[in-house]
Amino acid sequence: MSNFLPIQIIFAVFLLFAASRVWLRLKDGSLNVISFIFWFGLFILALIGVFEPELTSIVAQKVGINRGSDAVIYASIILLFYLIFRTNILLENLRHDLTQLVRLISLQSKK
Amino acid sequence: MKLLIILPAFNEATVIIPVIRQLKAVGKTLPVDSQICVVNDGSTDKTAAVCEAEKVVVLSHLINCGLGASLATGLAYARRNNFDFAITIDSDGQHDPHDLIHLLKPLMKGKADVVIGSRMLVKNNQMPWLRQLNNHLFNWLTYFFFQVKTSDSLSGFRGFNRRAIQLIKLKTERMEVSNEFFSEINRNHLRFIEVSIKVIYTEYSLAKGVKPGTVFAIIFRLLLRLVR
Question: How far is CA B15 from CA B12, B202, B219, in A?
Answer without folding.
Answer: 6, 11, 30
